[in-house]
């Protein structure tokens, strides 16, 4: 089977490990594990080098790693939707290898003070920001759509298995040989992913209309899609409500190890390993838990378990108990994150997948980047115990809000491309940049169905805006109450052709069919396309036809 070919029938197994049967997914998963292990080893080395410079510097390691996502996630998503994702991933790996090599040389030369350490960590974060949307967006090319939930969970298992191995290994290496060796391992780990990507024969995919999008236009299109997709917005809201409290654990764990439990770098690695072991063990239980609790039950349970862990860490100073309570915290972390990630993956259509996932990464990593220094400042102001208890309160509030803001179900949601609009019959051929284009659609409805029709058109309105409409309106004829005129404005002819051939989904089609089922028998929508004919516009003319 080729790298991008899915098996033809139903999924062979509902096992959590089923995606590993796909050769390219398996090879990338293994290479990613090695790289994630190197990243965690470096995190331990960097945080331990800064432990003597105060809580603020320690928490800034997480900020330096996460802040680039805030700055670069959306442009990276645009690049991933416009250019070859495999090429972008390769470029990111080689760039991160170069930065890690510099970090290694400085560490071995005893020239690594806090400022260059944080600056180089920031540059590594830029590489992660560049590859993040591309990495997420290629997952549907590697596994069947039915396995995206398992693939997402396996991605979380990968990270948490690396968290179980990397910190412990990093702590031992730092204690025995110094931080330079963990930085060196991290540098070499990027070459493993690069090797798999080089040998992956991914066909080049080109979407001519998308390639003609300018950067700012593409950014706006991604923002417009997310804003007009209620299911996507709800996933982002749940992420915002979970991450700040959860960030307390990751930001303050080095201080818990050093100040609360009196542990060294090896002990800090042990605590991180406990979280990782809990997450990996939790992967076996996730399918059953998700079936029993549902996605919203997973969110509530995960937040409550995290709150309990923070309370215990704040009030009890026993190493064995800290290790014990971090095991379910790891399960909670993977349960919530795999639920949110899978919800994003299964809702986004291909044309905007990388940009939508970039927004998710922006919220996820940006939340950690903003929260981390705040937790450090809170420790210096009120102390470690008060900061951890505050994090627990935030987690309990997150659990309480699920009843008010639940994740929407997937019923009726199918992001598969649906090329069901015919090519517009025009007497001239507009240029790609001609526009804006005013699309008008006339419908005729029985008077008794007018209310039902306008309700159905609310869903159509969101579909139009998601796929390119700058403005949208539905108007009722004052002389003929059953006659409705839908008007929407699209920025250019290229954008409107993209609506016709590369943006509409099966879900969009179902919304249109529900509205059109209410039309008068024997009538069809009447569609016209009008171009800007103002004095400042370049008006297409019939003689311009090709």
Strand order of the largest sheet: 2-3-1-4
Order of helices and strands: HHHHHHHHHHHHHHEHEEHHE
Tell me roughly what share of residues is in helical segments: 55-70%
Overall pLDDT, averaged? 81
Proportion of beta-strand residues: 5-15%
- Total beta strands: 4
Shape: elongated
What's the tally of helices? 17
Question: Strand pairing plus helix content: what structural class?
Answer: mainly alpha
Biggest β-sheet: count, sense, barrel?
A: 4 strands, antiparallel
| Low-confidence region ranges | 1-13, 539-546
N/C terminus separation: 42 Å
Cα gyration radius (Å): 26 Å
Q: How would you describe what is shown here?
A:
This protein is mostly helical and 546 residues long. It is built from 17 helices and four strands. The chain has a four-stranded antiparallel beta sheet with strand order 2-3-1-4. A hairpin with a 6-residue loop joins β2 (469-476) and β3. α6 packs antiparallel against α7. The protein is elongated, with a radius of gyration of 26 Å. The two termini are 42 Å apart.
């Amino acid at each position: 089977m080729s790298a991008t070919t899915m098996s033809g029938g139903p999924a062979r197994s509902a096992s959590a490990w089923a995606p590993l049967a796909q050769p390219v997914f398996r090879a990338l998963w293994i290479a990613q594990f090695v790289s994630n292990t190197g990243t965690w080893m470096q995190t331990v080395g960097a945080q331990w080098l800064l432990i003597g410079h105060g809580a603020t510097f320690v928490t800034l390691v997480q900020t330096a790693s996460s802040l680039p996502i805030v700055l670069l996630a959306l442009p990276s998503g645009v690049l991933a939707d416009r250019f070859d994702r495999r090429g972008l991933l390769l470029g990111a790996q080689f760039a991160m290898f170069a930065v890690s090599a510099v970090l290694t040389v400085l560490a071995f030369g005893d020239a690594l003070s806090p400022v260059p350490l944080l600056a180089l960590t920031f540059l590594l974060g830029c590489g992660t920001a560049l590859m993040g949307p591309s990495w997420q967006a290629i997952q549907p090319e590697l596994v069947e759509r039915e396995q995206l939930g398992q693939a997402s969970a396996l991605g979380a298992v990968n990270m948490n298995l690396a968290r179980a191995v990397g910190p412990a290994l990093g702590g031992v290496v730092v204690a025995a040989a110094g931080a330079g060796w963990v930085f060196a391992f991290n540098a070499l780990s990027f070459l493993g992913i690069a090797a798999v990507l080089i040998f992956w024969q991914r066909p080049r995919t080109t979407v001519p209309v998308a390639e003609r999008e300018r950067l700012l236009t593409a950014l706006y299109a991604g923002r417009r899609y997310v804003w007009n997709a209620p299911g996507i917005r709800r996933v982002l809201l749940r992420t915002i409500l979970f991450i700040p409290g959860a960030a307390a654990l990751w930001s303050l764990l080095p201080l818990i190890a050093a100040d609360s439990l009196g542990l060294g770098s090896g002990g800090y690695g042990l605590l991180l390993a406990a979280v990782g072991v809990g997450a990996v063990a939790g992967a076996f239980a996730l399918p059953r838990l998700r079936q029993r609790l549902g996605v919203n039950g997973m969110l509530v349970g995960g937040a409550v378990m995290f709150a309990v862990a923070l309370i215990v860490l704040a009030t009890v100073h026993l190493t064995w108990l800290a290790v014990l309570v971090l095991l379910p915290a790891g399960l909670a972390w993977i349960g919530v994150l795999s639920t949110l990630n899978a919800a994003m993956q299964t809702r986004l259509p291909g044309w905007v997948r990388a940009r939508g996932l970039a927004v998710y990464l922006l919220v996820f990593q940006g939340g950690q980047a903003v929260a981390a220094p705040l937790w450090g400042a809170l420790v210096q102001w009120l102390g470690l115990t008060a900061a951890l208890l505050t994090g627990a309160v935030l987690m309990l509030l997150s659990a309480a809000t699920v009843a008010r803001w639940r994740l929407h179900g997937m019923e009726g949601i199918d992001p598969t491309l649906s090329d069901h609009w015919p090519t517009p019959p025009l007497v001239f051929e507009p240029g790609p940049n001609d526009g804006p284009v005013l699309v008008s659609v006339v419908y005729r409805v029985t008077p008794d169905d007018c209310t039902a029709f306008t309700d159905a058109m609310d869903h159509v309105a969101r579909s139009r805006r998601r796929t390119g409409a700058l403005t949208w309106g539905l108007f009722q004829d004052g002389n003929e109450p059953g006659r409705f005129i839908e008007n929407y404005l699209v920025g250019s002819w290229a954008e409107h052709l993209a609506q016709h051939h590369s943006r509409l989904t099966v879900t969009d089609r179902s919304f249109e069919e529900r509205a059109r089922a209410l039309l008068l028998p024997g009538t069809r929508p009447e569609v016209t396309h009008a171009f800007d004919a103002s004095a400042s516009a370049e008006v297409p003319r019939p003689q311009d036809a090709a």
